[in-house]
């Protein structure tokens, strides 16, 4: 029993020892995991602290220091620095002044637990560091933050502040020294600032008393009061200006008040004394009225334009000279409109480029070289002297003097010069001027070379009889030399113009004329027309030959067409008799042959008709009448319905109510439509579709014929309307030689209409006809 108890006790103890071991093992593993987590957390916090923009330097109670690597790089510290004494002796890596001040702040913090903040700079000046010191328990902590960028910004802001302060001081001094009253109102429109001129104007002691008493520069209240402009400027956000009277220094003055809203709030204002300006304007107005009254009494026309180029004054002679109504001038027309009205009245020179001429006259406003002067020669013989004087204010003064009488008096003096200039302007002709006594006065080189006269002979101013005697041997008919004296006499005595033609012995031909001149002389001209005569004769001969050939061709075609009709009628008659069974019953194949004969006869008959139309179209006249276009088109469609059905073609006719009526030749319009339909049916294969569409508007009627046949190439479409120049027949089509489209074009254009064709290979064709209502 004892031994069992001992064994049990030993077992219990062993179990307790085993349980304790297990618990110890579990606890050890848990502590190991906690230690590992603590290490990880420490490393994480260390990394964050190392990456933080603020680095901490810890000073232990015994003077030992802990310096992060990043902070050591900022301060350029040696790795061997481990105490505050070593750090102080090394100079902190800062400027001497900042290092000493920081050392004193650290000592004060360690002794008195005083917190401080200071900005220091490294010795090379590359960094600015903000240092915040505090004591926590027995340790002193210095937080270093790199504020280099912030310090640069602060330095710039300080410089800007200095400049703004200087500018504000200068602006304040300028406002204070300004000779005109200046003020500023706050958001409630109360006076918040005035300058010395404002204080003097209201006769106050100083600016403070003005703002305290609320002294206004302008008397009154309500809409015309001193704050009305400021209120309007504040509400609208736009500067306001107005003119109001004020009493300054015991005298009544006119002030122009300006109220300007400021972006920062409030309204600034200033006043300009315009009393003298108003008086000057009044004097100028009285002077202008007196000047205009004087200008109205002048005989010359005077007009004045302002700097905006609008008319501001014109006198009565100007209105009479240019037929200007007072009502139209009262609207102050612009300079360009006045010139245009003068042109409408025929009172400006005739120029080819009137807009360019007008632009040049517009330059008078900007002239800097004084007055411009021109002479205008108007239709009807009127001469005007025009003086354009730019005005100092940017305006223009124009003076128009009628000098027609002076020009007419001077014309007698310069007639000879004008005649001489007019004579020699035309150098392609032989020119000679003969006086009333028959002597040669002027001549050109062409005149001398034509008759082979010596210069010495002409220099003696020979009489016309001597000239006729010298030129007689050079004429094809020497008797014609007597014509020259007769021409001169006719032009100088009878004062009539005569002309004719003369042939020279060498085969040349000349056209001559004798023209009376204003001074009583006669101008004899001779122009070589030899080349034109030869060309004219050649063209005349060629035209006669062509007309004869055309007549022969037309007669031949017409005769052949009539001759072909006789056998064609016989063939048609016999074929119809065979088809009707007069020669006995025919087999199905024979009937088909007879049908083919009839189709060919029909096409040949159409071709003969087309040829006849082509030969007679030029001479035929249209028998116009009021025609229902829809009825005519339907009749043409009925004529082609059987052919379309026989060729198994879908034939669609669309006649709109807008087709209406036209004034035309009923037969020719129907033939034109039939030609178009016949062309479309002939170009469409079995199973195809032909469309006839008719519509119109109030001015024109339109006919459209389209098919989905083989179409045409671009070259074929370009020659579609040429006579006998149609494209070749496409295999499988039953189209004639192609006279239908040219005939349709001829009939349509005879009615004043148009025809066009659009076609593409494989897509079919579309022909559009437009006919006028009248």
Cα gyration radius (Å): 59 Å
Trace the largest sheet across and list its strands.
2-1-5-4-3
CATH superfamily membership of the largest domain: Histidine kinase-like ATPase, C-terminal domain
- Taken from the alpha-carbon principal axes, the silhouette is flat
Biggest sheet overview: 5 strands, antiparallel
CATH class of the largest domain: Alpha Beta
Indicate the low-confidence ranges by residue numbers: 726-737
Q: How many domains make up the 3D coordinates? A: 5
CATH topology of the largest domain: Heat Shock Protein 90
Main structural class: alpha+beta
Gap between N and C termini: 153 Å
Helix content: 40-55%
Tell me the β content. 15-25%
- Count of helical stretches: 25
Q: Mean pLDDT, as a whole number?
A: 80
The CATH architecture designation of the largest domain is 2-Layer Sandwich
Give the tally of β-strands.
27
Enzyme class: transferase
Keywords: Kinase, Phosphoprotein, Transferase, Two-component regulatory system
Organism: Sphingomonas palmae
GO molecular function, one term: phosphorelay sensor kinase activity
